[in-house]
Every structure is written in structure tokens, then in C-alpha cells.
Amino acid sequence: MNYQRINQTLENLKQDAPRRAEVLQRVLSGQTDEEIARDMKIHEGTVRKQISIIYENFGLNDVLPGESRQKRSELAELFAKHKPELAQPINQTLRINPPRGIIPLDSPLYVEREVDEYLRHILSSHTDKSPLFIQIQGAKGIGKSSLLIRLHHFLEVEQKQIVGRIDLGIKGFTSDILGNQKNLLYQFTYAVAQKIKKALGKPEIPDLRNYWRDDIADSFNCTNYLHEHVFSRISQPKTLLIDNIDAVLDHEQTQQHFLDLFMSWYEQKMKLVSQEEIVWPHIVIVYSAEAAGKISKLKPLQNLGIILELPEFTEGQIIELANKYGLDWGKKLAQRIKKTQITNGHPGRINKIIKKILEYRENTNLYLSSHKESQDLIANVNKKNEELPIIDASLLHIFKEEKEDKPEEIIEGELIEESSLNLKKEEKKDKYEGVIEADFATKSSTNENNLSNIKQEDEMPSAKIYNRDVFILVDQSATMDDKDQGSDKTRWELLGEMLQGDVRKLLMEKNKRRICEEITLYLFSRKKVGLKFKVTPSNNNIKRNIFDENLPDSNTFICLTFKECVDTWFKEREKETKEKEKKAFILIYTDGMLDDRPQFEKLITETCRKLDNQDEIKIVMIGIGDEVRNNPEPFLDLDFNLQKHNKDRHGNPCDIFVFDLADEMDGIIELLSRQFEGDSADSDKVPEWVKENHEDWYQRYQKEMGLE
Questions:
Q1: Is 210 helix (H, G, I), strand (E, B) or coil?
Q2: Nearest residue to 170 via CA among 102, 227, 105
């Protein structure tokens, strides 16, 4: 297993099974099963089961009797080679000081985000002749430079690329240089050449002082020198990382010219516009979110290449960071930390909070059990909301220091979601919410009054569509590159635009509810599991990040990808309690019948037999393109056959599959909500366009289902 796969597996563990990730860390630190069980307050048998799954996750064979110690050793060797920072005693984390500035490569305190994995993937697997231009933006102190040095290390050490990293914020780029166009481009050219010089060998590159000509524009001097004497001499993959673009944006005299340089590189050097071979490297530039406004006004970089935003920490990442310091934070506490205005999930601010907590504990050794004031405050809060977890006294101390307010007000206003305690805000809740909670089963007289002049009940989404796992499978077959009649765009381009809107609706929070927290998106084409992507509210530009970077491929084989998707969902459900287990949607977008339809039907049948009821998972196939639009009946037959014959594990009808046309559906939310209307045999579930345009098929459907 290589570095990239280990990181991906680790990321999946952190997101999907944080407790198992903690078991892994404790195993790597040298703790025994008994010690892990004691510290995590779980049974030893549970520990052994979790460790067995960890072995499987990281490609180690099943453990036979007497082999446990050997497998533990193999796991330790694997991480010592690829992730040595994880192999340290747990109690050492308590003595680690929060970092200032860039987190060093050897620090165990770095927490990866999805952007890390995405950058490693595209920069190591990109095979197109045109190099990538990537912009990374994020708030100051959010970890951009720390990400960049890790990306540098990965590309240079793991991928054997030639990498140059230029930091425009260092002392070499003084105000005198940054404020003068000639000085800036000269120094920048020199810095790039020096960073990559060791890969060039002999002969030595010409002295830049003798090359630079005053009768030629500075941008030409820079571009021509790098082309002729640096980039053209390197045949292997190469990447140029440019940090702290902000430094240039502080100087009006040079900012426009410097950004124009990137625009000219992108258009003339990084695209195949002539017979000349492309020698330019991938380019990654980094700047703060505060600087993004200036860049937008200056135009050159607007919509140029791939634009990524480095987001704040998720709740899981906050827990992971706390664990690295030896703090045992639960999910609800992480939610409070993320939502409070003091941090808003910002890594730098969370590190500051953690540092104060550790100082507080070390200096006073006060914990909640001996902190009468804190107990009284929390008891007062818990009277209003019994479900809230108790806060550590040291954390209360931090928030009292950060906010010059009464502790009780801080808890209510900051650490706890405001709506849960503020009765005035409770009274202002959306008029729809009561009806949504009741799933529209009944309406009180109050609800009837509220809704009488607004919307009818059947126009509102079913409550069953919320809080689900969502998977999207996208047809990447060659025909997706076709253009339909009257369209100047390919199906692939149109689907990217349509799906962009669908994804944002699925991730959007409304009335404090959303359909899903993230989306797992797969591409399918050949007889293998397709590429997999994670889409989140902060990184949801799938048109730019997925559709623009991946082109239509070959066939329409879905089964291996579909099976991977369903198996993943079932596996994760097994870890959840009955009260908390999530249901799922699987959305399939395709422009033609599946090449492995019989096997697909069999997989649907097998999936049904594992379900307790048909509401647990809904699979929606959405047809696009002229071929499907002009002849949808094979897809309707597929829908009908699966609806008619499938049973759940208890022998009850299991209608989990439906087909619809993208051009005919009202919207993705309405389509999903319709899946929960009526019984499985209810004719109203058949779309109106089928009834109107395919009467023969509809009559046959009614007859077969006994609805005539």
C-alpha cells in the first residue's frame, strides 16, 4: 500500500469511523488491547474486532490464531514508513505545544482536509498534455502554507516530480522589489530558476543579469528565460508552487502586471495552441480569502483554471485535532466549538483555544468534578435543554476570557446553538417546520392557519428525504461527448451544469435541515470501479473540479461501481445504532442503457433482500440526451420489472428503483420527495409525461399492476 492509498484510507476512517481511527492511533502508539479498552471505556472484544477491521482496511491479510502480534508489527512498519508522525505514544501528545505559523512536516498536529487528497490526486494522475493551473484561497491562518509544503513533499518524494516552491512573503521579496515591476519580475524569475536549478544539470543556465534586456518587456524577459533555459530542459513532470500572492496585491503599481503574467502563461504556454511542445509545469498559486476580492476586481485570474477554497475544520477534524493533544472531545462539543463566533471552525483559532485549555489545566488542575461554579452554570443550561452534553470547566474558562460577558450568556449565545435556548427565536421558527416534523401525516388547526395563505401541503418536500447519505453515479461513456439536436454543448458539458445545481440543492441547509452533509460522486464507464470524489458544501464546484478535469471515456458498465457504492453504504450502516443509522439516495445520470443491465438488475434484487423496508434506500436513474428522450420505454421497463418482482428481507414489496427524464422532472428535491408518495403500487408515482406521451406503456403497466 502506497502513501496515497494510506492517506485516503485514513481520511475515510476519520470521516466515517472516528472511534476506529482512535483505536488505530492507540495501536500505533504501542498500547495493548487492554489499555485501549480501559482508556476508551469499551470492551476488549470490541477493540479486537476494530483492530481486525483496521488490518483489512490497510491491506493486511486476515489474522489467524497466533498471528495477531505479527500483524500488529506489520501495521507499525507500514506507518513507520509512510506516516511516522502517527507512531508515537499517546501521552506525548499532551506535551505538544500548538504551532505558530507553518506546521512543520514532522509535526503530528497537521489535520488533512479533502483538498489535500484532491490536490495529490490530480497533480499525480493528470495525463493530459496541458498542465494544470490551480488557485487555492482561504482565510489567513487557515493552513494554506502548511498544505503547500506537504504537497511539495508528496510530489517531490513520492511522485519524483521536479518541484519549485516560491514564497513571495519572505524577506527576499522586499517592498522595494514588490513595488517595482522590473525588480519584481526579475527577482521572481531568478527565484524560480534557483529552485529548479538542481534538476537541470549541465550546462549551467545563463546568468540572468546578462540575459535581461531593457528594450524588451519585463514579462517577455521572464517568460522567455524560463521557457528556453529552465522548463524546456526538464522532461519529467514538474510543478511550480507559488505562495503568498497577497504580498504583490498590496502594491498597486505591480499587481495588475503580475497577474497578467499568469494569464498569458495559461493562454499561451499551458494550452496546446500550436505545434510547439508544451514544456510549462503545473502551477499552483495560493492567496488569502481576504485577497480574493482584489483578484476578482483585477479580472486576470477570475475563473482561470481550478479554483479551490480551503475550508474551516469540520466537526470530525476538530475532534481529530483535539485528540492529537490528548483531549477527548465528543461530537456535540465539537459542534459548539465550530459554531461559536470565537472560532467558526478556523484551525488557527481552535489551536489558540486548545493552548489555553492546556495551560488552564496545567496551572490550576481544575476539572468539572471539582468546579462548583461551572456545575451550577451547566445545570442551569441543562434545565432548558436536557440533551446537551456537559462542558469541561476549562473550556468554560476560555470562553469567559475570550468574551467579556457573563458565563451563562456565553454558553447560551455561543457554545450552544442559539435556537435551542433562545425562546424568542423559538417563536419565530419557520411556519413550515411543524408540518415537516410531522411528515405531513396530520395537520393541527394551528398548522392549517399557518399554511392557509402560503403553500399547499402537497407542494412541500417529504421529511423522509432529509439526513441521508447521498451517492451520485455519472455516466462517463463516449456518447456523453455527443451534442444533441439544437445544442451547441455536449451532453457532458450540459450535465455538468445541471448537476452543479442539483448538488447545491442537496447540500443546502433550509429550516436547519439538509438532505445530506456531503455527497460521494463516482464516474462509471469501463468494467472497473470508477473515479470517486467527495463533494461538500465548501467544495461543491463539480463542474470545474470534476467535469472540466475528466472527459467522456468508453462504455456504460455500471455494476462494479454500483456494487462498491452499495457495499460501502451497508458496511458503514453496520457501525451505526438503529436510532442513528442513515438511509440513502443513489442518483444515476446516464444517456443510454447500461451495458451490464442483467447484472445491474440482479444487484438491485440483492440489495432489496438486505433491507428492512423500501424507504431505507432509493435509487433514481435520470436519463439525459436525445436517445433516451426519444425512446425511454426500455428504461421504463427496467423500472417496472424491478418494481414488480423485488422483496425486502421480510418478504414485503420493495420498490427502490425509479426512472425519470432530466428534461421532464420538476427538480431534484421534488423528484426525491415523490419517491415517498403513496404505496409502491400507487399509479400516481408514474410521472405525468409517461401517462401523456406513452399511453400504451402506461396501460400495460396498469394492467400488470392490477390498477385498471
A1: helix
A2: 102
Radius of gyration of the chain (CA): 29
The whole-angstrom separation of Cα 142 and Cα 154 is 20
Q: Could you tell me the three cell numbers for 150?
A: 506537504
- List alpha helices for 371-453, DSSP H: 372-384, 393-402, 407-410, 418-421, 423-427, 433-437, 445-451
Are the C-beta atoms of 90 and 325 separated by less than 8 Å? no
Angle at which helix 18-28 crosses helix 68-82, to 10 degrees, equals 90
In DSSP terms, 468 is beta-bridged to: 583
Q: Hey, what domains does the chain have and what are their CATH numbers? A: 3-88 (1.10.10.10), 114-309 (3.40.50.300), 328-421 (no CATH), 429-457 (no CATH), 463-705 (3.40.50.410)
pLDDT, tens digit, 9 for 90 and up, residues 343-393: 778 888 888 878 777 766 555 444 433 344 444 444 444 444 333 333 444
CB-based contact 648:657 (threshold 8 Å): no
pLDDT at 448: 36
Cα–Cα dist 283/192, whole Å: 12
C-alpha cell at 553: 471515456
415 touches 340 (CB < 8 A):
yes
User: Look-up: residue for cell 484510507?
Assistant: 9
CA pair distance 17, 575, nearest whole angstrom: 8
pLDDT in tens, 620-678: 999 999 899 888 888 988 888 777 778 888 888 888 999 999 888 878 888 888 887 65
Q: Concatenated DSSP letters for 548-610?
A: TT----S----HHHHHHHHHHHHHHHTTS-TTT--EEEEEEEESS--TTHHHHHHHHHHHHTT
Beta bridge partners of 287: 137
Q: How many CA atoms lie within 13 A of 622 on its CB side?
A: 22
Contact between residue 63 and residue 55 where contact means Cβ atoms under 8 Å apart: yes
Is the N-terminal amide bond of 203 cis, ω within 30° of 0? yes
3-class DSSP assignment, residue 284:
strand
Strand order from edge to edge, sheet including 162-167: 162-167, 238-243, 282-288, 133-138, 306-309
Helix H, strand E, coil C: the string for 362-394 is HHHCCCHHHCHHHHHHHHHHHHHCCCCCCCCHH
Residue type, 238: K
CA distances from 553 to 85, 286, 350, 480, 643 (A): 40, 32, 44, 8, 31
Whole-prediction pTM: 0.47
What cell does 594 get? 447500461
Residue by residue, DSSP assigns 639-693 as: HHHHHHH-B-TTS-B---EEEEETTT-S-HHHHHHHTTSS-TT-GGGS-HHHHHH
Task: Describe the crossing of helices 18-28 and 33-40 by its angle, rounded to 10 degrees.
Answer: 140
CA–CA dist 76, 149 (Å, integer): 25
Percent of the chain at pLDDT exceeding 90? 29
Per-residue pLDDT for 64 more than 60? Answer: no
Place of cell 458496511: 571
Of the candidates 574, 570, 573, 591, the residue with the CA atom closest to the CA atom of residue 582: 573
Burial of 593 (0-12, 13-18, 19+ CB in 10 A): middle
Total number of residues shown for the chain: 708
- What sign does the CA torsion over 369, 374, 378, 379 have? positive
Q: For residue 172, give the DSSP letter.
A: T
**Burial annotation 125-147 (CB, 10 A radius, 16+ → b, else e):** eeeeeebbbbbbbbbebbbbbbb
